[in-house]
Amino acid sequence: MPEQQNHATDEPLRLMAVHAHPDDESSKGAATTARYVAEGVEVLVVTCTGGERGDVLNPQYGPLDPEHMGEIRRAEMAAAAAALGVRQQWLGFVDSGLPEGDPLPPLPDGCFALVPLEEATAPLVEAVRAFRPHVITTYDPSGGYPHPDHVMCHRVSVEAFAAAGDPQRYPGLGEPWTPLKLYYNHGFSLARLRALHEALVEAGRESPFGDWIESRVAREIPERQVTTTIRCEQYFPARDDALRAHATQIDPDGFFFAIPRSVEAAQWPTEEFELAESRVPTTLPEDDLFAGVR
Ligand SMILES: [Zn+2]
Fold first, then answer.
1. 136 CA to middle of ligand 1, Å?
2. Which residues contact 134 (CB under 8 A, 6 or more apart)?
3. What's the CA-to-centroid distance between 141 and ligand 1, angstroms?
4. Quick one: which of 244, 252, 256 has its CA closest to 209?
């Protein structure tokens, strides 16, 4: 495929995907990043934390020494980045863990979600000024999932999008650079869950999505707006390889792999995004994250 250029400057287009933990880049928007890589866009995944407090979710693994979790996850991340074809950079913060219980326990000292906003954003501003992305993706204000690191990932991304181009802010962290568009990833929307569930039931297979749909409806979580739909079923195999690369974190018999890929490609061949901010004119709905930039 031809190299895609930003005609205004003749530079290659650049996409930065900001994520909370290693594995999030493989479960949210992964096929989209693989597609843009294949089309000649430079893609950098930025991972805020080392995922040190992740639970082992693959029953094929026994309990792992928490001391080694960071190291294991770095190796898994490198394999996932290779599967997607993206570059990847760590911001170096420590995973806050997912607090569980009633009442919720306090967050551990020094974790990402407790770092003051400006301090937490500084390395991302530096990364934006070094990589100079035209488009940044992150999570919606709820985090898309109630993990304190996902909410914090949203906050630092919004702050970096606002500040990276301003020479008065975050001085000493590189030449200012103004990214043009900011998007929120959509993971499993209710519409996507329902489509996959119905396809599985119709095919006479067991669906893991029924209870999920019920609890989502019961909790009355408002659905986010879809502004941008990216066709990417050709890159589902790359996404699946990236998911499997996070071997301790992803159950190969779990819901990610419950739907036969041919059925998925026919029912839901896309990934969805919500345009949060744009500094270029664009017309919604879009089918390209670089609409208005090219
Ligand atoms: Zn995460």
1. 17
2. 6, 13, 14, 15, 179, 180, 181, 290, 293
3. 14
4. 256
CATH architecture of 12-188+225-278: 3-Layer(aba) Sandwich (3.40)
Express each pLDDT in 245-282 by its tens digit.
999 988 888 888 888 888 899 999 999 999 999 999 99
Residue 29: which of 255, 290, 232, 234 has the closest Cα? 232
19 is in an annotated binding site: no
Task: Provide the β-strand partners of residue 6.
Answer: 11
Q: Do residues 73 and 20 touch, judged by C-beta distance below 8 A?
A: no
The number of angstroms, rounded, from the C-alpha of 257 to the middle of its chain's C-alpha atoms is 18
Give residue 166 CA to ligand 1 midpoint distance, Å.
29
Residue 24 is assigned to a ligand binding site: yes
Distance 84 CA to ligand 1 centre (A): 18
Look at residue 18 in the predicted model and tell me its pLDDT.
98
Give the chain's end-to-end CA distance (angstroms, integer).
16
Residue 255 CB-density burial (10 A; 0-12 exposed, 13-18 middle, 19+ buried): middle
Tokens of 243: 């998911």
Ligand 1 mean position, distance from CA 175 (Å): 30
% of the chain residues with pLDDT over 90: 72
User: Is 150 labelled as part of a ligand binding site?
Assistant: yes
For the chain, the structural domain boundaries read 12-188+225-278, 190-223
Distance CA 156, CA 148 (A): 12
Distance CA 287, CA 268 (A): 15
Dist. CA 37 → ligand 1 center (Å): 23
From CA 170, how far away is CA 130, in angstroms rounded? Answer: 13
| Ligand 1 centroid from CA 203, angstroms | 31
E-assigned strand segments in 65-112: 87-93
